[in-house]
């Protein structure tokens, strides 16, 4: 019988999303990889419960997560119907639609037809009456922005999602979509973007756009899918995302130059008394970085290591400059 940790909220430094009343843990758990039908259910469940016990209150999903697509939402729904059944209102659950989910033109993109149907399916898979946050997962240049905004409005007005968000929109696309949403009296709560030491594009214009509109930034893949951990420092382990080949993380990312950089970052982490993953997460959460992060985890141990970053987020100017120097190499 699962007994949640009664002290789970005691030490977590929750952050407020934009100008809203929503407060989430600065590190959330994402279910893109490691939670599908191809994974052991007991490990999925243990990782989810480890997150909950540690005070993580935000879980990030999408219609297409897991192998096959949809299976991560089913796994999550199973734990929600089991151990977490009494705790739904303690959780901030997001899902998304925008990437290919089913065959034909109605299973992809940004049409009202796709978004409304996809969210219905997601709710069924997770056994939920509503999600807390629904994202348009990526911009769709084939669909008028007005139509996607209409769909998001309908979803909120019908109470199928409490808040809406955008993901993978660049600064210009974000600007245009925020105007559409504001014209409908809707606020975009969150923008979810790729951001890490190895992917810094949001610093150019996107972060400024979001600040100007009071939209929170939540970074995905802050560990660069595992590259920014000690995982690959000694070569490619068999049990790794790069070796399994399901994602965009390919062996050609592991160049000699990259490895040398990672070794230097590891030395900076060691000097701070952290793991490389913890250094990468602390860096992404610094002032000028993202408001919150979504990590992936293969097992409870990885998640606990990542959450350990929260014990030492602050960085001196010298440490920051040393990291900048390594990243510029
Ligand atoms: N909006 C979007 O388009 C989008 C895109 C991508 C992701 N996301 C969201 O962001 C979430 C996180 O993305 P991500 O999984 O790519 O993030 P990530 O945290 O950068 O990478 C997670 C992977 O890093 C490795 N790892 C994690 N912690 C570790 C540790 N402490 N020590 C050693 N290795 C560690 C594991 O790799 P191994 O599995 O190899 O062990 C793990 O699967 C997703 O689940 C999803 O919710 C959103």
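-> sequence recovered:
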């Amino acid at each position: 019988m699962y007994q949640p940790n009664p002290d789970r909220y005691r030490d977590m430094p929750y952050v407020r999303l934009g100008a809203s009343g929503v407060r989430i843990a600065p590190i959330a758990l994402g279910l893109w990889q490691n939670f599908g039908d191809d994974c052991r259910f007991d490990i999925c469940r243990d990782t989810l419960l480890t997150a909950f016990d540690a005070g993580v209150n935000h879980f990030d999903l999408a219609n297409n997560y897991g192998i096959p697509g949809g299976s991560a939402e089913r796994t999550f729904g199973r734990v929600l119907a089991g151990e977490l059944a009494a705790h739904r209102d303690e959780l901030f659950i997001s899902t998304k639609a925008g990437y290919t989910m089913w065959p034909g033109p109605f299973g992809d993109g940004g049409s009202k037809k796709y978004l409304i149907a996809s969210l219905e399916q997601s709710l069924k898979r997770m056994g939920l009456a509503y999600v807390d946050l629904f994202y348009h997962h990526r911009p769709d240049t084939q669909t008028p922005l007005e139509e996607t905004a209409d769909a998001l409005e309908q979803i909120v007005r019908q109470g199928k999602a409490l808040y809406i968000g955008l993901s993978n929109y660049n600064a210009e696309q974000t600007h245009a979509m925020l105007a559409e949403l504001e014209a409908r009296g809707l606020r975009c709560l969150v923008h979810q973007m790729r951001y890490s030491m190895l992917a810094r594009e949001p610093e150019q214009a996107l972060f400024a756009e979001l600040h100007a509109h009071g939209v929170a930034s939540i970074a995905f893949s802050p560990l660069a899918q595992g590259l920014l951990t000690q995982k690959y420092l000694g070569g490619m382990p068999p049990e790794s995302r790069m070796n399994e080949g399901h994602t965009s993380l390919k062996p050609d990312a592991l160049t000699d130059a990259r490895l040398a950089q990672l070794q230097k970052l590891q030395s900076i982490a060691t000097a701070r008394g952290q793991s490389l993953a913890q250094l990468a997460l602390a860096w992404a959460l610094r002032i000028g970085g993202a408001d919150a992060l979504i990590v992936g985890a293969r097992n409870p141990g990885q998640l606990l290591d990542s959450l350990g970053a929260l014990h030492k987020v602050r960085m001196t100017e010298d440490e920051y400059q040393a990291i900048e120097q390594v990243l510029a190499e």
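Residues 30-34, 60, 137, 167-168, 192, 220-226, 229, 231, 240-241, 277, 294-298, 302, 305-306 surround NAP (CB under 6 Å).
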